[in-house]
Amino acid sequence: MLPELFSIGPFTVYSYGLMTALGIMAAIWIGEHLIQKNRLAEDGFLFGMGIACVIGGYASSKLLFWITILPEIIENPARLLDFSSGFVVYGGLIGGVLTGCLYCRIKKVDFWKVFDLAVPLVALAQCIGRIGCFLAGCCYGRETDGPFGVVFHDSVYAPGGMRLFPVQLLSSALNLCNCLFLYFLWKKAGLKKGCVGAIYIMTYSIGRFGLEYLRGDLERGSVGMFSTSQFISIFTLIIGVALFLWRGRASLGE
Length: 254
Fold this sequence. Notes:
Blueprint lengths: L3 E5 L2 E4 H23 L7 H24 L1 H6 L13 H19 L3 H26 L13 E2 L11 E2 L2 H23 L5 H17 L10 E2 L2 E2 H23 L4
Antiparallel strand pairs: 1-2, 3-4, 5-6
Helix pairs in contact: 1-2, 1-5, 2-4, 5-6, 5-7, 6-7, 7-8
């Protein structure tokens, strides 16, 4: 659609990178306000944690992508030098959560309270980021004859001249709904610490599993009858349910 927004000399602004950055900045800005309002940590805490999680998430998402294309890397090790494309969202989420947990431990902040506050913002960042996917043409959908099909002409990822289902926009909309739902639970439901975070893991796993049937980019690999992300979704859903049950019981004594 619009992979490059504009260029100034040798410097080019890419739509995917810009939307991803906007999503992260929006999440950090809103989260910092909520953290201070609810007195969960010192000023600037979420900014520092956000930077750490971005680094940890980037590294993990890249590592998981390399795992999915391991045969290609063995054949052509130069693929390891491409840091501009090729990421797996699940890797980023897992790496980001682990980094956030470590950061909270170092700062002596209650991770579960921060986790519950952060997950609606993560969903918001994903909502904005998926718009970047659509503009760049990555993470594209299956070929379709339906009325919502779009044709990409300038993307280096999506096949040109073919009507594809805009799964990126559907994913963006679902992430926005998830953001609002999780924020409502965090604000009004009065759940035990860690339960809103657990619900995010469940809702994202279910949504991602279903959306994979609409994806057309097969490069990410598969495990049997499932795509790599669907296979991971099964385990993350189980983890989410287990975490919800554990935190619901554990919090009773806190």
